[in-house]
Amino acid sequence: MEFSVVEPTVTENITENITETRTGTRTAPGGDPGIPPAARPGRPDPKPDPERAAAIRRRDRAHVFHAWAAQKHIDPLPVAGGAGSYFWDYEGNSYLDFSSQFVNLNIGHAHPRVVAAVRDQAERLCTIAPHFTTEPRAEAARLIAGLAPGDLNRVFFTNGGTEANEHAVRMARTATGRPKILSAYRSYHGATATALNLTGDPRRWSADSGSAGVTHFFGPYPYRSAFHADSPEQECERALAHLDLTIRMEGPATIAAVLLETVIGTGGVLVPPDGYLAGVRRICDEYGILMITDEVMVGFGRTGEWFAVGHWDVVPDLLTFAKGVNSGYVPLGGVVVSDRVAAVFDHRPYPGGLTYSGHPLGCAAAVATIGAMRDEGMVEHAAWLGEQVLGPGLRDIAARHPAVGEVRGLGVFWALELVKDRGTREMLVPYAASPAESTPVTEVMAACRKAGLWPFANYNRIHVVPPCNLSAAEAAEGLAILDGALTAADAYTTEGAS
């Protein structure tokens, strides 16, 4: 596969004129912290190879069983490669990746430092049983614990986010001796049995056993308040009162943990009002309940902090991660465990494990990813990009399109909520929509892809979730494409139909 792209170069002065911050990360003084040329290769110009694409499609349709899909109703795009903020197909088309694939490609495609680290580790030691220890696992755990807040000092490695949540719940139940877990509606926590029952969206419905020891509650969502709130402050107060009442009705002594996404992701990029997470922490402490924050999607720079709890200075008892820890280059996830929970297992075996826990290749990728993010100021850049480019740009777009009801987000984690009518806030696409009902958003996505942009969509929302090292110029390019594509949604509004 041939393509034209700027070759990565070694940047010797990457750490010049940088200062240490309170979290130990580094940033350039003033404005955009800057991302080195190695992380910004520019839009590629791939050479078409349609015969290869056709062969891949035939094999895929004959032998691959795809997740979350009716097998006869999908036509997966054969992807040929990726570099920086772009990936490309075999037809000569390139796409600016505003989805970060599954919101996990925080450092972009094919970052040379991480590719080299995986290659070097593979040449030394590809795999080893988890009862041994290795340099990459020990170093990855040290780095992750150093980024986590408070006394979260121990790391249990998994293969991804679903297993991380499964094991966090197992730890909480074992440590407390209590059976129940509370989790929020509109959440997603994974696709295995316990994780799917924890999930608070329609993907749970077909697999919900009704006996998994999980109770759901409503979290804050000011734009569509379940509490008839008039302000974010009132929404916070009423959501906390609802959680407290739910706990009292369920029986505090039966509840092991409250599990929640720090910022709800697939369910809408719902940023909690100030004071909410601190309130959850206070309620948990009052009843002797553990607090688990799911940072699988928002961890490692996505919101402009290493972990999203950093925005509100809240310390959970258990914190789960995956995705951005190594940008998905090799499957890896885990649970960061507080000292008090870890102490339960000092003289009592933890009842769980995984063949690939702490896999050398995954951990080597994590060490390199964290190093690259620190040295290149990616977390600071993500915060700057959200405050100065994506946030203002999306709000400008919203002002021009009657289909956009609300813009919300932070860092490189944003959503446009699409509506039929701004006054009534009727959803442009209903909750749990059928394919036919999803037509307005499907048309927006098609227009984006035709123009070379690949965003993320769920029900009535378009999510803008690019890599943390997206450049300001790339952001402007993507926003311009999205601006044009949203005219398709406007046609379905009351204003567009009149």
From TrEMBL:
Gene3D superfamilies: Aspartate Aminotransferase, domain 1, Type I PLP-dependent aspartate aminotransferase-like (Major domain). GO terms for molecular function: transaminase activity. Residues 1-30 have a biased composition (Low complexity). SUPFAM superfamilies: PLP-dependent transferases (SSF53383). This is Aspartate aminotransferase family protein. InterPro entries: Aminotrans_3, Aminotrans_3_PPA_site, PyrdxlP-dep_Trfase, PyrdxlP-dep_Trfase_major, PyrdxlP-dep_Trfase_small. Residues 42-52 have a biased composition (Basic and acidic residues). Keywords: Aminotransferase, Pyridoxal phosphate, Transferase. PANTHER family: AMINOTRANSFERASE, AMINOTRANSFERASE CLASS-III. Belongs to the class-III pyridoxal-phosphate-dependent aminotransferase family.
